[in-house]
Design brief:
The structure is a single chain. By secondary structure, the protein is of the alpha+beta class. The chain is 27% helix and 27% strand. The protein has one domain (11-105): Heat Shock Protein 90 (2-Layer Sandwich). It contains 2 helices and 4 strands, in the order αββαββ. Strands 1-2-4-3 form a 4-stranded antiparallel beta sheet, with helices on one face.
Length: 118
């Protein structure tokens, strides 16, 4: 189970992770026509894990060469994760919906207020 965060993340990281979640939720509702989705944040030692799962239509997140996402929203999320020093993984299969997972390293700013996760 994830650990409670003792201090807030730097504002750039908070905003970047929020934007990744925002785009993944938008994609699930708009493109995949998902009925159910789950957004979770886990704080592990040295990293934050953001996971968005949905029950929508599956898709192929990879292009023909299977190295680059062909969808602009996925490219944007992958770029945000990369700029935060992390990575983005997308898994989608027929009948199983989609899972978007961003893992980014964290180094909390000690002089900022405490983040309370509910």
């Amino acid at each position: 189970m994830g650990q409670p965060l003792a201090a807030r993340l730097v504002p750039e990281m908070e905003l970047g992770v929020f934007r990744i979640a925002q785009e993944a939720v938008r994609n699930a509702l708009h493109h995949a026509r998902a009925c159910t989705l789950c957004v979770s944040l886990r704080f592990e030692p040295g990293e934050l894990q953001l996971t968005i799962t949905d029950d929508g239509c599956d898709f192929s997140p990879q292009g023909p060469d299977e190295r680059e996402p062909v969808h602009l929203g996925l490219r944007g999320m992958a770029e945000r994760a990369r700029l935060l020093g992390g990575k983005l993984e997308v898994r989608s299969a027929p009948g199983e919906g989609t899972v978007v997972e961003a893992i980014v390293p964290v180094a909390p700013q000690r002089d900022r207020p405490v983040l309370v996760a509910l």
